[in-house]
Specification:
This protein is mainly beta. The protein has one domain: PRC-barrel domain (SH3 type barrels, Roll). It contains two helices and seven strands. The longest helix has 5 residues.
């Protein structure tokens, strides 16, 4: 997927309802997880990403700062994010517990 033409979200758009269920892409556009939920909003938010598993079963939730993700909309208006982390790096993070 070519993200160059996608529209970056502004800080005011970084709201839990908009980011929920967004796909997270890592290096080489690998689908590495999806947003489970968000704590807070704007630049101070923590994004909880479900990593691994299959169809949501067995996924490990990890918390990352929203600043480590580049959220954008594609041509169809779908919100997704890009990060430099790999799936394995996210899996190595501590599991998030609400």
């Amino acid at each position: 997927m070519n993200h160059r033409n996608h529209v970056r979200l502004t800080e005011t758009e970084l709201m839990p309802d908009l980011l929920a269920h967004a796909t997270i892409y890592g290096p080489d556009d690998e689908d590495i997880g999806s947003v489970s939920h968000v704590h807070g909003s704007g630049s101070m938010a923590q994004v909880i990403i479900d990593v691994g598993g299959f169809l949501g079963i067995g996924a490990k939730p990890v918390a990352v700062p929203v600043s480590q993700l580049d959220f954008m909309r594609d041509e169809d208006g779908e919100v997704h994010a890009v990060t430099s982390w790999t799936k394995d790096q996210l899996k190595d993070m501590p599991e998030h517990h609400d």
